[in-house]
Amino acid sequence: MQKWLSRYRNWLTAITGVLIILAFSSKWVFSSEQGSAYLLFVASLVGGLPIFVQAYQALRVKVISIDLLVTLAILGAFVIKEFEESAIVAFLFLFGAYLEQRTLAKTRSAIKNLVEMVPETTFRKLHNGDFEEVSVEEVNEEDILLVKTGGKIPVDGEVIFGSGTANEASITGESIPVSKGLRDKVFAGTILENGTIQIRTEKIGEDTTFGKIIELVEEAQDSKSKAERFIDQFSKYYTPSVLVLAIIIWLISRNIELAVTILVLGCPGALVIGVPVSNVSGIGNGARHGILFKGSDVITNFSKVDTMLFDKTGTLTYGNPQVAQTIYYSSDRSLAESLLASVERESDHPLAKAIMNYYSGSVVGVIDSTEVVQGGGVVARIQNHQVLVGNSYLMNQYNIPFTNQMKSDIAGMEAEGNSIVLTAIDGQIALVVGICDQIRQGVKEDLETLKNMGVKNLILLSGDNQGTVDLVTNQLGLTEAYGHLLPEDKAEFVRKRQASGEIVAFVGDGINDSPSLALADIGIAMGNGTDVAIETSNVVLMNSDFHRIPHAIGLAKATRRNMIENIFIALLVVVVLLISVLSSSWMNMAIGMFVHEGSILVVILNAMRLLKYKRK
Questions:
Q1: Which of 3, 21, 540, 553 has its CA 20 to 30 A from that of 150?
Q2: Which residues are identified as catalytic?
Q3: Using the 8-state DSSP alphabet, how is residue 444 labeled?
């Protein structure tokens, strides 16, 4: 019964509305009072049935819901034979629920649109070189897939043949096509606008960037903020209070119509729907702009951020550095280059990639053993040589000596903004590599915007040398900057700022950033960063687009304002209605219910404004 009513609830709403129209037509056009009363009676039953059942189901789990108040109001109108009011109350309540349902469906369209971007079938390469059409669910990692012009890319992978341009708006929010060629990465859910490519599958299903987007948006929209949880608790006590108030008024006045009207007007419908609709609308807007909020609480906390901490490599910079200087302290240069390249070949760190690009022609050896020293670098054994590759912290841990000339050379490279990679072979410094990274275009303007939006402290935390950190700080106009920091040092810095009463956001992309991302009030991960960084963060910026941060914080502030506005509207309407019914003669059940359902529509429309939010 309940499933049937739920399935056809909208039809019952429409039938109730039609019956009410026919009833008034019968009364005004055909002057048939009896026919009008009969149609209103039937309308009350049709519209009241799903409400009665919903109230009964709530009572079974010991919840006094809004549906119970409306049920009692309809029954009360029946008792006093006000079928006009009972029918209108039932219709307006059902119609309000319909509007709520439609609005939530629209605000959740981000998920629907994303899901529809994933194709159901694709062309997979067979052993004989031909391609067959198969279900995407049958695709495995390392499979070779063919994508033609206008086709949807079904997996994350690498282009191994052909070229074209891809529309990556579903991932980055940008509609400008991106050129794709040999060895370029492509993402599930994007569209190949022209060209033909073959891709080697790297990630499938939920593991793709696209799959994670959908999962994160779904989790965010299903979660509840503190405000929503408070409203839920408030409703549990508020609803019985209205019921008690109606009983007291009836006992004092013996006016059952007045008591029934109190039941109707006291329903906190707009209050219950106002907050979640605001949050879901804000999350939907963010998803369409490449910003993933992991829950409603994240939006509220983000709107209050006054201190923002930044990692450097891959965050404020492109994370695509190049070797700028090299200094050799070993007579056997080829050995130093070969051992360094052998170690860095095993790493996916941006500095390692820069070194591999620079020493692409070097012979690499087989690593016998390796150990990663967190915050320091790598210790390896290659061809009976102990090889240390990392920063000064690693060298000091292994008591590697530095001459005055070495210290002077390193200081000079640091002063020019280089990140330093030291290589020690068998206990002696053999090679120093200076690597420079380029600051992201437009970051300085974005940081200035953040200041204007109320973020007082913009602080750089980096494992790089202080000279490089200071250089970046001066270029970007940051308020503070600290270098030579280990992951635990960054986490401790976050704790200290939080202890001083600041609301802290941390922006990073690497594994070493994950402790700080998890500890901060708001962790913001660059979408092209490591999986662990994305998992431990609260906000994900797809395609590592730093320019999204001002939009994200502006959207968070707008969503919080919108939520407060909806709470105010809902409470104001209830208070005004209750005062009017107790102190005036013009207020009745039908008028009150019309105003009440109107307030639900108002808060819904107010929340929907967030779907079109753009930072000015």
A1: 540
A2: 311
A3: H
Question: Is 426 within 8 Å of 385 (Cβ atoms)?
Answer: yes
The SS3 call for residue 522 is strand
Location of each CATH 2.70.150.10 domain in the chain: 121-211
Residue-wise DSSP of 242-287? HHHHHHHHHHHH--HHHHHHHHHHT--HHHHHHHHHHHHHHHHHHH
CATH 3.40.50.300 fits domain 291-312+443-544: no
Query: Who contacts 435 (Cβ-Cβ below 8 Å, separation ≥6)?
Result: 321, 322, 323, 324, 351, 354, 355, 418, 419, 420, 421
Residues 6+ apart with CB under 8 A from 363: 334, 338, 341
Strand partners, 310: 460, 507
For 334-353, how does the pLDDT look when each residue is reduced to its tens digit (9 = 90+)?
999 999 999 998 877 768 88
* Alpha carbon separation from 157 to 110, 161, 196, 487, 509 (Å, rounded): 24, 12, 15, 31, 21
Question: Is the distance from CB of 123 to CB of 162 less than 8 angstroms?
Answer: no
CA dist., res. 581 & res. 589, Å (int)? 9
The pLDDT confidence band at residue 552, using thresholds 50, 70 and 90, is very high
**pLDDT single digits (tens) 74-118:** 777 777 777 777 787 778 777 767 766 665 555 455 455 555 666
Tell me the fold of 319-438: Calcium-transporting ATPase, cytoplasmic domain N (3.40.1110)
Cα 539 to the chain's mean position, in Å?
A: 5
Report pTM.
0.59
58 Cα distance to chain centroid? 32
**How far apart are alpha carbons 506 and 525 in whole angstroms?**
8
Higher pLDDT among residues 143 and 513, named by residue: 143
What are 188-218's pLDDT values in tens digits?
A: 878 888 889 999 999 887 777 666 656 655 5
**List of E strands, 367-510:** 367-373, 377-382, 385-390, 419-425, 428-436, 457-461, 480-482, 504-508
Structure tokens at 66: 């809004």
Domain 121-211 -> CATH class: mainly beta
- Assign 39 to helix, strand or coil: helix
| Cβ atoms 383, 365 nearer than 8 A | yes
